[in-house]
Amino acid sequence: MKKLLVLLISLFFGSGMLASVSAQSVQSPFFAKTVFIQKITSTREGYVVVYLDDRLNPHTIYVPIQWFYKSTGATTDGFAKAEILYGNGPQYPYMQIFWKDGKFHHLRIFAEQNLNSPSWGILSDTADTSGLFHPNQEIDFKFEH
Q1: Which of 37, 102, 105, 128 would be a feasible disulfide site paired with 93, CB 3.0-4.6 Å?
Q2: Considering the domain boundaries, does residue 132 fall inside one?
Q3: What is the 3-state secondary structure (H, E, C) of 27-92?
Q4: Which residues have a Cβ under 8 Å from the Cβ of 135 and sit 6 or more positions away?
Q5: How many C-beta atoms lie closer than 10 Å to residue 31's C-beta?
Q6: What's the pLDDT score for residue 131?
Q7: Tens of pLDDT along 108-124?
Q8: Coil, helix or strand at residue 17
Q9: How far is Cα 3 from Cα 29, in angstroms, rounded to an integer?
Q10: Quick one: pLDDT at residue 16?
């Protein structure tokens, strides 16, 4: 019985499967980077996201609400330019940024499900966010090396 199990496992994880997986990943036009999020603030215009670079320096981006809908923020190949996914755990919050052929393509925000979490911010009533959320904007991500 043990020999059969070992044989099945070795067939499943055999070199043919590994070669096809690695060949697919090499051909992908996408590059992804994951960064930790320090604070997310929800506004009517979108989300203010403070993320940490490689040296843990904070940087702020403004993600327009239109990017979260395929009808108003779709990429040319049908992706929503932004997604927000909720969950629980010590890894939250974080963000994945995707580039396709060297140009920004879309991002995914993985946020704490509990809106009372310290990772969620509250925008003051006097904060002026006009002009910060443009659906056609290019986000300048900063990463220290």
Answers
A1: 37
A2: no
A3: HCCEEEEEEEEEEEEECCCEEEEEEECCCCCEEEEEEEHHHHCHHHHECCCCCECEEEEEECCCCC
A4: 64, 66, 67, 72, 73
A5: 12
A6: 80
A7: 999 999 999 999 998 77
A8: helix
A9: 41
A10: 53
Closest alpha carbon to 61 in 75, 85, 41: 41
Instruction: Say whether 1 sits in a helix, a strand or coil.
Output: coil
Residue-level length of the chain:
145
**Rg of the chain, C-alpha, whole Å:** 20
- Residue type at 9? I
Please give the model's pTM, rounded to 2 decimal places: 0.74
Q: Around Cβ 66, how many Cβ atoms within 10 Å? A: 19
In a domain, 83, yes or no: yes
For 41-84, the pLDDT digits (tens) are 998 889 999 999 999 999 999 999 999 987 776 787 888 899 99
Q: Which pair of tokens denotes residue 48?
A: 């203010």
91 — phi, psi (to 5°)? -80, -15
The parent domain of residue 66 ranges over: 29-121
Mean pLDDT score across all residues of the chain: 82
Asked whether residue 104 is assigned to any structural domain, the reply reads yes
Report d(CA 143, CA 11) in Å as an integer.
Answer: 42
Per the omega criterion (within 30 degrees of 0), is the bond before 93 cis? Answer: yes
